[in-house]
Amino acid sequence: MTPGDLVVIASLSGPLDVGHAPGLEQAVAVLERMGFRVRLAPLLETGRHHWWSAAQPADIAEELNALLRDPEVRAIIAHDGGHTVLGYLDLIDVEAITADPKPILGYSDLSLLHLVLYARTGLVGFHADLATSGLGGHWQAAPAARQAELEKLYSTLLTGPEAIGALPTTSSWECWRAGRTEGRLIGGLTNRIVLAQATRHALPLERFDGAVLFWEEMGGHASHVWSYLQVLRHSGILDRISGMVVGVPHEIDGLGGSDASPTLPEIVLDVLGDRDIPVLGNVEFGHAGPNLPMPVGIRVALDAQQRTLSLLEPAVRPAHGDGPVG
Fold first, then answer.
1. Distance of alpha carbon 325 from its chain centroid, rounded?
2. pLDDT in tens, 124-137
3. Residue 103 and residue 75 in contact, taking contact as beta carbons nearer than 8 Å
C-alpha cells in the first residue's frame, strides 16, 4: 500500500446502530489523516440488519468478494465485530485473495477470517482495531500522544516496505514466564480460535510448530477462558507453540486472586503446566482497546523477561515470494 490508496470500511459481521454513526465518522477522519482515501461499502448503512448481522451471510460474502476483486481497493477494515463470519467462511473467493492479496483489519469475530484465510491462502490478516468502535471509539478516548503513536504505527505497518521492529511497550506488559523465542504470530480471540479449528478450514496443526500464539478474551467467566485453553491443549496446539502473548482481559467475571477466583496468569500457567515457553501478558490488544496491531502469520521475536515483542517482517507484501502475503 501507498499513501492515497483506497481503504474501504465494510460491515463484515455486525450492523451499524444509529448511536454508533458518529464513531464511524471519526474512523473515516482517522484513516484520512493517515493519508488514505476512504469509502464505505454499501451494506454499511445505519439501521440495516438481519437478526444480529448487517445482512444475510451470503450478501456479506458477495460484498466482501467484490472488494477482494476490485483492484482499486487496497485494504478492508471491518466496521465492527459480531457473530456472522461463521456463516460465510465457505463463500469467500480465495482465488481473488491469491491473485491480489490485500490486508483485512479487525478483531473479535474477524479472527475467524484471519485464521481461515491465512490457512487457505497465506494472507496476513491484521488483528487490529475495528473502524467504528476502535478508530472512532477507543482511539478517541486515548490521550493525544497515544492517538498519534497509533496512527503512525498503523500507517507505517500498512505502507512501509521494511519490518517495523519492536512494538511500543508500556508499563502494563507483564512477564508471566521468562524466555525468548522467534516464530510466526498466530492467534486472535480465544473462542474464535477454538471455533475456527473446529471447521474444515482449520489451520493444520503443523502450522503451529514454533509459532507465537497470541490471544485475548472478553466477557463470560474465568472458567470459560480456562476451558478454551484446555481445548487448545487437547488439540495439541500448546505442545507445538514456542511462546505466548496474552492481551488485556475485558469484562471477564471470576478473575481475582483467591482460591475461588484465580488471576489470569494463574489460569494460563495452570493450563501450560510444565511447558517451558515464554509468556508475555497484559499486552494492549483485544476488546479493552485501543489495539496494537497483531499481523497474523509474520515472524516475530518475543522476549518475555525484557517485555518486548518485535515484528521481524513487513506485514504487507506482494503475492509472490516466500512467506505470508498481505
1. 16
2. 999 999 999 999 99
3. yes
